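[scheduler] slot 2 assigned
[scheduler] job type: sequence-to-structure, two independent chains
[scheduler] chain ordering preserved from manifest
[runner] begin chain α
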Amino acid sequence: MRCCLSLGSGIIFMSISMTTIAADSLTRAQIIENNTNPVGQVNVAGASAQAAAAAAAANAPLTGEQLYKKDCAFCHDNGTAGAPKYGDKNSWAPHLAKGADVLKEHALKGFKAMPAKGLCPQCSDEDTIAALDYMLKSVQ
C-alpha cells in the first residue's frame, strides 16, 4: 500500500512540477489565451452565404430614404431648431423659394442651426443630396 501511495504521490508531484516549469516559460496572457481558445467550430449550412450577403449589404450605398432615417430624421421629423419638417409644405416653402442650388449648398455646407452634411461627415456629397432629394419629394 505504501508503495502505491508513494508512486501516486510522485506522479502528482512530477505533474505539478512539469506544469509549473511549462507555466514559467509562458506569460500570463499566453496561458490565459491557451486556456480560453475555442476547441471547435460549428458550421451551419448556408452560414457562409449569409455572412457574405450581410457583408455586401453593410458595404452597399444607402438610399436617400435610408440616409434620411439614419441622419436627418432626428431634426426634420419634428422641426428641431427650426428645421423644415419632413412632408410639411408650409415649413419648406421659404426654403424652396431659394431654389435647388441654394438648398444643396445649405445641405452640404450647413445653414443656421443645421451643420454641414447634417453631422454625417462620412456621407459623400452625393449621399447628402440623395437625402435632400428624398425630403424634397415629400413636399412636391
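[runner] end chain α
[runner] begin chain β
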Amino acid sequence: METIKRLLLLGILAAVFSCTPAYIPNVVNTPLLTEKNDLNLATYTGTSGFDLQGSYALTDNIGLMINSSMSNRANDSTDNYHRHAFFEVAPGYYTNYGRIGVVEVYGGYGHGWVDSYYSNSYFLSYSKANVSRFFIQPGMGLTTHIFDGIASVRLVYVSIFQDNISDYGVFFEPVLTGKLGYKYLKFVGQMGFSMPVLSKEINFEYQPFLVSFGVQINLGALVKSASQNNH
C-alpha cells in the first residue's frame, strides 16, 4: 500500500512540474505473447490519462499491438483544462526462452493531438499541437499463470507541430511492468521515465514520468480453455 501511495505521489509531481505537456508518453504495451492466437486486452489509468491496449499473436513469433491514450480533464473553478487523444499500431517479433521467458521487440507509428491550458497568479502555459511518433521497443521478461514481469525500453522519435512551427525530440523511456493475478485476469502496475537524449534542446513541454495501474484480460487463453472444455 505504501508503494502505491508513493507511485501516485510521483504521478502528481509529474503533473505539477509539467502542466501543459505537448508530448505525453502513453503506457508501454508489454504483450508477453507466447503462442499463436494469444489475445490480450488491457485498460489503464495514470499519468497519460486513460489508456486502452490490445495485442494479438498472428503466428508463433509475430505479434501486433494497437494502443490508444486519451484524457479530458477540466477544473470547474478555473479555466484550466487538458485534453488529448493518441493512437498507434506496432507489429513485432517475440520468442520464448526456457519455460517461462519471453523476449519481444515491437516497432510502430502513432499520431494524435493535445490541447491544454494552465494559468495561475505566477505564470500561464498552454499546448495545442499535433503529435506524431515512431518508436522501437525491446523487452525481456517472464510469464506464469500468477505473475508476469518485464523490463522494456522504448526509444521514440517525436514530431510536434505547434503554432505553425515543427519541432522534434528523441526520448529514451525505460519501464518496469508487473502483472499479478491468475491466468485470464491480472492487475498491472508500470513505472518508468521519459528522458530526452542526444544533444538537441527540447523546445516543447513533455511529461517526464510514466506511472500507471490497470487490468489485463487474456482473452486468447480464455477462449482456448473454453474450447478444450467443450471437447
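[runner] end chain β
[qc] chain β: Helices lie at 2-17, 219-229.
[scheduler] slot 2 released
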